[in-house]
Write the structure tokens for this entry.
Amino acid sequence: MERTRVYVVEDQPHLLKNLVKVLGTFEELEVVGTSQDGEDAVEDIVRVRPQLVLLDLELPGLNGIQVTQRVKRRAPEVEILILTSFEDEQKVYEAIQAGASGYLVKRVGPEKIRSGIREVMEGGTVLEPIIARKFWNYFQSIQAKPPQKQENPWGLTPTEFDVLRFVAKGLSNAEVGHVMTMERRTVRTHLSHIYRKMGVNSHVEAVVLALRAGIVEL
């Protein structure tokens, strides 16, 4: 089995040690590096080229948003999953805008981190439901104009509409599959069709466009 190569950035030594220990218990994951400093992390990540970075926001040197921006600019293939204590919707917005593929708070358990990594590596976006709602509400609040209702501008099927609606509520691919009684890979197939029709590359971009068009509600 090919393992996912993970790099961990956390400035608190005991939390870093615990994270590395927990991740080491999952046979599909391999920790390939760690850092406690934002600036050092960028250089090391670019050199090591992990598949995914588990990243705190509050760091010495550069903060997590800045680290995300610089890593995505220099190594765009590296996925970023934020793991922090902040639930501030502005921070979520900034992280996603910078290129992060997910945002979890530190109180989540090991299995949630594990499933979050899997979700991101399968092309999904990870936002806890409560954070997702805050994020989309914040996104709507900073728009210059209210959404203009449009009638299915991308030709989405009813099933694709449902998938997009559940994604907007923060459900993972697996959770969407459970609610809609379909296999996980079927959800991924529907998402790939949605992305192609909408001309986007991620959950976040798809939901942002749908909100702007007024075709999904929170």
